[in-house]
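Appendix B, Record 12. Input sequence as logged:
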Amino acid sequence: MKKVEEFLESVSFDKRLYKYDIQGSIAHTKMLAKCKIIADSEGKKIVKALKEIEKEIKGGKLKFDLSLEDIHTHIEKRLIEESATNSLTPRGNPTSWLERWTVSYETSRPQVGP
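Logged structural output:
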């Protein structure tokens, strides 16, 4: 399995793109709040958490794991961890906003191929 992870991973070189991935995630979060898909207060907390994750990466505190494949997956995993520990969800459902954020993000990506 390790050989497969080594073959499939891209984080060893795309981790340099973390700032742009976070900027895209912040823009996406603001759009979700503006469209009332997530609450404005949730959006602000997500943006704050994303900025903290950016500081962690910049400071070399985020440990990269080849099994997570790419930089976006690392950021998303860290955001999930942050939501569990810092009450990003005022409605008591720790995945409600994250599910909407992730599903919306995944469906808004341009599709490549047929």
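Residues 40-58 form the longest helix (19 residues).
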